Amino acid sequence: MGIIKAIGTAIGGSLADQWLEVIEAGEMGDQTVFTNGVKIRKGSNTKGTADTVSNGSVIHVYPNQFMMLLDGGKVVDYTAEEGYYTVNNSSLPSLFNGQFGDTLKESYQRVKYGGSTPTVQKVFFINLQEIKGIKFGTRNPINYFDLFYNAELFLRAHGTYSIKVTDPLKFYAEAIPKNRTKVDIQSINEQYLSEFLEALQSSINQMSADGIRISYVASKGRELGRYMSNVLDEDWKQMRGMEIQSVGIASISYDEESQKLINMRNQGAMLSDPSVREGYVQGAIARGMEAAGSNANGAMAGFMGMGVGMNTAGGYMAGASNMNFQQMQMNQGQPQGGMGYGQQPGAQEQASVPAGAWTCSCGSVNTGKFCSECGSPKPVQGPWTCSCGSVNTGKFCSECGKPRQ
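User: That's the sequence. What structure does it adopt?
Assistant: Structure tokens below.
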């Protein structure tokens, strides 16, 4: 018993007038992996024998379908090529492999002798499309050592993955429960999901070893799919004739302790930026003034209290602000200086040079009559003009007696 490819002219309106079966795949949704063939009655033949495929019956095979013809429970012929096929009880198996080439020959030799009842003939179809939208979720947090945070973190992952049947005969023999006429992926997925989650943990651990930051895992669906292929595909191909096609992570969440560590590290990273620190300082001052203005005992009492606090903390705030500005200017490659908390423009430069100071030729700044570094005397100053208009060289004006300014 086998199938032969039907000639196009034989499949026409005249077929409806013959008492033969036309067989097509039953309902095949996007989650269906296996279904039986159903007879489409033609003409007035309504008394055909159940579980029998009449000689001369026509089978329709559509794209992405794999058809198997069974006799007595054993596979006697199959095809992965779309088209019309006629059942011929006198022919040998034709074995139309289609896209699979010679890869199905070994599987065919394994499953063709697996039957028991010699009087039952059936047609079954396997879905060769990518089976998408298989949901998964980690039951327990997965450990993930993140080099960026330098910490052992724990995450949960939820999403979907897809599979594709790569060896339909092996898939039929190993994955499809016996005596079933239709199988959806969810009805056989419990074992596969457990294996998938185990492989997912191994793959995520490998991403950790490769130095990928934990926050990037959710956007690494393709890379994760490749990791999963390395971990799981070889086993699934050999055992069941299917493989992982893609993995889509919908959400990544962290356990409470991991979230605290991440937040603490992120805050530290932000505060290492002097501009962020300065914004925090100025914000703290603004919040203090706002709180003082809304003091229940009156704004004046609030500002008095704030003044007392500022006397205590003002030095620290001013120092912190100055340090922030100096670091910002160093980062920008500019001379140090600027305005910090409690400073006016130029106040830092004015405070750094005492009144009456003079600079020696050696570069030392002094306030006495002699240089504290080299001992040179303070240079004699030149003539000066008094406010009365008189030009003098001494310490007092010779006209009005005013001291030299």
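Confidence is low (pLDDT under 50) at residues 8-19, 113-118, 335-351.
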